[in-house]
Amino acid sequence: MPVEKSDFSEELLRELTNAEGVSGFEDGARSVMSRHLKPYADKIEFDRIGSLIATHGADSKGPKVLVAGHLDEVGFMVKEITPEGYIKFLPLGGWWGHVTLGQRMRVVTSKGPILGIVGSRPPHLLEAKERQVVLEPKDMFIDIGATEKYNAAKKLGVRIGDPIVPESEFTVMANKKLYLAKAFDNRASCAMVVDLFRKFQRSKHPNQLVGAGCVQEEVGLRGAATVANFVKPDVAIICDIGIAQDTPPTGFSRDEKLGAGPLLLAFDATMIPNTKLRDLVIDTAEKKKIPFTMTTMDRGGTDGGRVHISNIGVPSVVIGPPIRYIHSHNGIMARSDYDNAVKLVYEVVKRLDKKTVEGLYPRA
To answer: pLDDT per residue over 35-71, tens digit each?
Structure first.
């Protein structure tokens, strides 16, 4: 058994969230996940667009249980370089303009990363009506230290198509129960897969466990489609973060709040979960006294949207910790929610034997 640090999970979350890995450029995050899975997996493979697939219990004759998170984070790509050296960019994933302005960015070039800041016209130069408009990324630019006739392409190696990553370091907050970082969506769930494999080094499961780090979720659930074709799972648990709703104006009156346990999706725009699997998760949480919250997501979806309709259909459910301020430079997560999400998935996987999985399928 490998020697582990005193707080393996915290260091794992630090490495994964600090890693670069916007959609289509997941190499950094994939390398971290692969390295941490290697001591615990029977084998690690990759599909042809870059998703990671690790197997535990490869010789088991039980059902294939896929537990998947996605490697990519929301970010940007260089679209244009002005003659003065300003960077025009396009979003990779969903961004609201107001959370982008004034933020530090890292442009990842062939010569190394370059720090810049998102700029726009100052409010002093805007008419009253213009100040009320939410600026779109197309109206913004990144200043990497531009001056007149500065050739960013030649001097710094900036090229159209280079990825742009939010500049934000993992931080344990003053309230040490909370973590602040970029890319909790969805590196928190990639960490969950690693921690799940670690836990199963000390106990058994009645199935072939397959853990995945899918690519390009934020731009169309693309890696989930290839992973599902690669694995052909019998059942799937999609690990993704949920939206914490305990900030103003609602305050702490909502159930989806930090410290209340992982979220279990009853509905999202891409998938209605298998109801028998959903009920199994609820029953497991209640029996093991693991706190959780049921929630819905009217807009947006997860990798379950592709996995559950792959092949001849895969019973699927979505579980993950609530996060404040997703799709921005900084999210906040409670460590207890992460730990309880890992525990819940672990206990559910232990129950997914052949008879239980077959019982999830429709019958006349």
So the answer is: 999 999 999 999 999 999 999 998 899 999 999 999 9
Are 267 and 275 within 8 A, CB to CB?
Answer: no
Active site members: 217
Give strand pairing partners of 106.
Answer: 115, 165
Mean pLDDT value across residues 177-205: 97
User: Residue ranges per domain, the chain?
Assistant: 8-73+182-358, 75-166
Question: What's 273's DSSP letter?
Answer: P
Range 8-73+182-358: architecture per CATH: 3-Layer(aba) Sandwich (3.40)
Query: Of the candidates 28, 322, 340, which has an alpha carbon nearest to the alpha carbon of residue 179?
Result: 322
CB 234 within 8 A of CB 63: yes
pTM over 0.85: yes
Neighbours of 10 (CB within 10 A): 16
Instruction: Please say whether the beta carbons of 151 and 84 come within 8 A.
Output: no
Pick one of 2.40.30.40, 3.90.79.10, 3.40.50.410, 1.20.1560.10 as the CATH number of 75-166.
Answer: 2.40.30.40
Give the H/E segment covering residue 27: helix 27-37
Question: Max Cα separation, the chain?
Answer: 73
The residues facing 142 across adjacent strands are 87, 118
Residues 142-176 have pLDDT tens digits of 999 878 777 777 888 899 999 999 999 999 999 99
Q: How far apart are the first and last CA of the chain?
A: 47
Question: What is the average pLDDT across 332-355?
Answer: 98
Q: Report strand pairing: 141-143 vs 112-119.
A: antiparallel
Please tell me whether residue 332 adopts helix, strand or coil conformation: strand
- Going by C-alpha positions, the residue among 309, 308, 326 that lies closest to residue 317 is 308
